[in-house]
Amino acid sequence: MKWPDGVLATDGVDWPYQDVVSRFERMVSLHGDRTALRSGADSLDYRTLDRLSDRLAAELAARGVAIAFDPNMRSAMSEAGYRRRFEALAGLASYIKASDEDLQQLFPARDQDCALEALRRLAPQAAILFTRGADGMSLISPDGTLEQAALPAQVTDTIGCGDASIGGLIASLLKHPARTMAEHLRFAAATAACTAGHAGAYAPDETMVNAKLALPSAA
Fold it and tell me: What residue stretch is flagged as signal peptide (predicted)?
């Protein structure tokens, strides 16, 4: 996606947003008729792309495709447009990853337990991976709640640990469907622990994650 030439510099619009979602929502609101995507002679404006992306997610969910959703909420993503998309995707998702920080931003007037309950009401069908950093993670689903302690790690950087946890969970579900949900959750925790040991948003491979799980300290 390419931001239209001159928008940021000349349209007199304040752009405090750095994430793609917030910028996209802003473009839909302020410049919905401008071209967002072009392929040969075909093009889509921002307003049409916004509508079609919502429709695509709904159609995929209706066909039984599992959707994983990480709201990755930040204070800049507080416009009404994002809230609408968050609630719509939460209602379609099979798996949702939310951190304790996400919940504070999404439901600022509620304590943690009430915020989780509010998310469950939005997504009663979903398994929610709730991450709490060094305090571990939970997998909350219609079948109950599983708890997983954080695995030992030599922490270099926590950037990307949340992404690693949901990535590890989904990878385990796809590659090892015979595992129990507790085993999938433990694999997610090991993936996050591997990421924490490296600077930046590091993505460990399966060999590294299995090595972490094999350590006596991970037992």
Answer: none
